[in-house]
Amino acid sequence: MRNYYVWLVFLTLLLIGCSRSSAPTQSQLDSSINGGTFTASPNEKFSLRLDLDADGGYQWKYEISDSTIVTMDAQPTVQAPKNVVGGVSVETFYFRVVKEGECTMTFNQSRAWEQGVAPISTVKFFVVTNP
């Protein structure tokens, strides 16, 4: 009888270990989403990677038309090129879809001290969430 329980525990652990993870995957977007639509589900996480001319004093600023639908999930990170003086860095933004709906996300790359100057880059896309 004891062997029966040992095998039962072993098989249970084996099945749990081989089962598919129910954790949602995180979608990774880049500037090619510009002008497009990203479709997601509530509680889905996604990231957006954008090239950044940080050495030129530029920074990305973003606006979300309805922050009750999409919210920032973590602080952005910047990855600078290795062993290169200057060059383009990559800034990654992390978001989470909160609930059903639609919103627009707009990212502008500009210098903070240059007022009234058009951004050098803009990325704008729509987020549509489904149940």
Polypeptide structure, described:
This protein has 131 residues and is mainly beta. The protein has one domain: Immunoglobulin-like. It has one helix at residues 2-18; strands spanning 27-30, 37-40, 45-52, 59-64, 70-79, 89-97, 101-110, 121-129. The strands form two sheets. The chain has a four-stranded mixed beta sheet, with no helix packed on it.
Spell out the key features of this protein.
Immunoglobulin-like; 131 residues; single chain; 4-stranded mixed sheet; 1 helix; mainly beta
CATH topology: Immunoglobulin-like
Number of separate structural domains: 1
Ends: how far apart? 48 Å
Determine Rg (CA atoms, Å): 21 Å
Shape: globular
H and E order: HEEEEEEEE
**Individual helix count:** 1
Could you report the average pLDDT, rounded to the nearest whole number? Answer: 86
How much strand? over 45%
Q: Quick one: CATH class?
A: Mainly Beta
What are the low-pLDDT stretches, counting only 5+ consecutive residues below 50? Answer: 18-23
Query: Structural class given helices, strands, pairing?
Result: mainly beta
CATH architecture term: Sandwich
